[in-house]
């Protein structure tokens, strides 16, 4: 059997693009990495494999721990990690969800062509930058009362619909229709609510962005037609999450769980994997708070999309309805959701933790919206500012291989510090504009340097692995036109 050595960790090749760390010692299950050898070289360059192996110690984990092809080192649980954990006899781990709860991506399609945008890129990027709050700290499109925030946490995009920020079709084209009914606003601390109150409708910082793109390639014409995509079409991708509110939820519960469940903590090789036993009070409270943060993030992206529609109306002097600016789909990352999956021939309730990974359900899965029930879930995988992004659909093998999951992006190669030491933001902006006709605007040059194209893995290779394994099928590729960063 072919093997791959990464320090003191040995991986065995199960088949093409599937590598396994066999179960040994106190591991409850094996660990699998889905990657080409070149991606595996990059994944093994930090502590990703060690973190992945550590996750196999979580109580109640089933089948195997997984690392998607965009995987890299995270907090305790690797980014790109997926784990299905028994929802009755297992646990739930905030570190396996992450700080930016429901950091996710949505794609807004239009009937505009690239020729409608050419020559107006600077006007458009300036208007978007002025209209959509970005960067660290407060400032959002909507600043409400405490009651408003609690309604957002409980009702998600239903609140946006009731308050004029959405139309019914927006909810119909969002994962879970934009609302987790298990949300419990009372389980969210006042500090978290106060942080969120001034950030509703804002990009934040880091790798979050709003990007106008053009469709450059269509791979599955029948599926692309169902998704309303065609070559040369203009679309808008929005990537952000739950801002300071989600970060505070994670911080609050990590501390509480570490203190209350030290017995579980003592059994784990890394305290950053701190977990609450399924059925415990803290597990239920964290799940309710996490679902509330998920709802908050959906509203956050919805308000940014609402403002984007208004900007396009101003720039192009047409209503957004005339431009057919419709939500294709919104996908969530950094969540743990109760789902039913087949384990050893029997259906089991699992907490499926997806940290930096995307749900990718195939056709026929009951959670899919009616528009995509027969074709499969749209999956959105952003690349960098200088590379393409992708639209996939949930692959037929995803349930069997990955608990219905695939990658969530290109995946970082460099830390932010290393990126700032390697790239100069203004130079990156100039090169993107002059050589690739991509217009970028950000709060600072340092932000652009941190997100330079060279900071990321090859998104084409990440997506090709997903496609080859049948967990997420390539439908279309998009390319940046203009981009605003946090």
TrEMBL record:
SUPFAM superfamilies: Hypothetical protein PH1602. It catalyses: a 3'-end 3'-phospho-ribonucleotide-RNA + a 5'-end dephospho-ribonucleoside-RNA + GTP = a ribonucleotidyl-ribonucleotide-RNA + GMP + diphosphate; a 3'-end 2',3'-cyclophospho-ribonucleotide-RNA + a 5'-end dephospho-ribonucleoside-RNA + GTP + H2O = a ribonucleotidyl-ribonucleotide-RNA + GMP + diphosphate + H(+). Monomer. Keywords: GTP-binding, Ligase, Manganese, Metal-binding, Nucleotide-binding. Pfam families: RtcB (PF01139). Mn(2+) 2 binds at residues 239, 333. Essential for tRNA splicing and maturation. Acts by directly joining spliced tRNA halves to mature-sized tRNAs. Joins RNA with 2',3'-cyclic-phosphate or 3'-phosphate ends to RNA with 5'-hydroxy ends. It comes from Halapricum desulfuricans. Belongs to the RtcB family. PANTHER family: RNA-SPLICING LIGASE RTCB HOMOLOG (PTHR11118). The keyword Ribosomal protein does not apply. This is tRNA-splicing ligase RtcB.
